[in-house]
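Figure 6 in text form: structure in, sequence out.
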């Protein structure tokens, strides 16, 4: 079991500390996403230390497909496999099963589907997901759930969220069994349950009331950031948050922009993750404290300044906008690497400044000073 300590509150915003077998996580935290045990753009786990990453997130489905969770187990688990001694969270694979798999059949037992790589038929249910994540040996494993489309018919969402509760109970039982076995990679592996219910307030509340009855180390809000308007997402957080245990971390899955994160913290969320900082960076879209810039714009061709003067990331300390833009135009891999390092550094620095503001009792001031500015397009 992990130990979560709520250090301070300011309104609904929470400053906490989560102690795990792989180290302490200061919250709120943004988890840096390395889906296949690597962050796209040529970023290593050594780089993650340099940009202030606390938690790395990898994906169960992708690692099961390649190189195989049994191989990673034989290599001593994910931490040894990619040389990382800090916490790792593994997503259950549920989202990928429902978003990537074209031909799938959902039953009470689980989901049968075709691999997106070689159309090989695969079955994954709660027990299979827990066994894969146990082989990976992550610090935190996510429960296997069904992520429905938004919007989806009420009756379908109701049946789906009820099944997600039953699947969580099976995940809990299987993880307890696996953690008790000799030779388990990480016998202290923790489980987070996932709240579902689409965009229906009553289903979200009903689901949260039920999953909190299952003893978990944390609870997530899932099924958002899949195309709905931001205000819908914020509304769902507002609806669910009062029913989430205060003594456990709260995780908003797959979110999001810097503005989304600032809003999420304001509403009581502790954990975030998203591919956005690395994905956007690979296309020259960069985040700064004065707004977003597209480094591919012609106006940066002869700009001698760093991406952001106030930034201390490896890219900004050493290279100009002009040079990094040239690398992109010349299709040099170094351009993407420097851009990704910058965005990851920015996101991790954002979380540090959020924690600092909470420590000082000034988060509301921080929130109003930054929420709109972070979303705007930087002009210089």
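Output sequence:
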């Amino acid at each position: 079991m992990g130990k979560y300590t709520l250090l301070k509150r300011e309104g609904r915003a929470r400053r906490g500390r989560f102690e795990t077998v792989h180290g302490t996580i200061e919250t709120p935290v943004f988890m840096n996403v390395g889906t296949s045990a690597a962050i796209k753009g040529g970023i290593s786990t050594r780089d993650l230390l340099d940009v202030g990453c606390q938690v790395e997130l990898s994906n169960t489905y992708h690692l099961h497909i390649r190189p195989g969770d049994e191989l990673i187990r034989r290599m001593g688990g994910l931490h040894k496999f990619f040389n990382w001694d800090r916490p790792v969270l593994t997503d259950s694979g549920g989202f990928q099963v429902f978003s990537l798999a074209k031909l799938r059949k959902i039953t009470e037992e689980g989901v049968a589907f075709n691999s997106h790589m070689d159309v090989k038929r695969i079955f994954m249910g709660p027990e299979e997901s827990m066994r894969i994540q146990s082989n990976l040996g992550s610090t935190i494993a996510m429960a296997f759930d069904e992520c429905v489309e938004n919007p989806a018919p009420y009756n379908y969402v109701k049946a789906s969220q009820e099944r997600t509760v039953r699947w969580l109970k099976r995940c809990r039982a299987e993880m307890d069994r696996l953690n008790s076995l000799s030779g388990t990679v990480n016998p202290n592996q923790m489980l987070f349950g996932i709240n579902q219910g689409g965009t229906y307030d009553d289903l979200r509340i009903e689901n949260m009331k039920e999953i909190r009855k299952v003893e978990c180390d944390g609870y997530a809000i899932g099924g958002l950031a899949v195309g709905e308007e931001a205000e819908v997402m914020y509304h769902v957080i507002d609806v669910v948050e009062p029913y989430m245990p205060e003594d456990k971390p709260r995780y908003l899955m797959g979110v999001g922009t810097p503005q989304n994160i600032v809003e999420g913290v304001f509403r009581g969320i502790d954990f975030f993750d998203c591919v956005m900082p690395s994905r956007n960076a690979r296309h020259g879209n960069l985040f700064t404290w004065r707004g977003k810039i597209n480094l591919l714009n012609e106006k940066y061709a002869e700009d001698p300044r760093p991406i952001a003067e106030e930034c201390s990331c490896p890219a900004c300390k050493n290279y100009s906008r002009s040079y990094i833009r040239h690398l992109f135009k010349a299709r040099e891999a170094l351009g993407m690497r420097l851009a990704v390092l910058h965005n990851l550094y920015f996101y991790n620095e954002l979380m540090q400044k959020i924690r600092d503001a909470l420590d000082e009792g000034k988060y509301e001031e921080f929130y109003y000073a930054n929420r709109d500015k972070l979303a705007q397009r930087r002009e210089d």
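Caption detail: The chain is about 40% helix and 20% strand.
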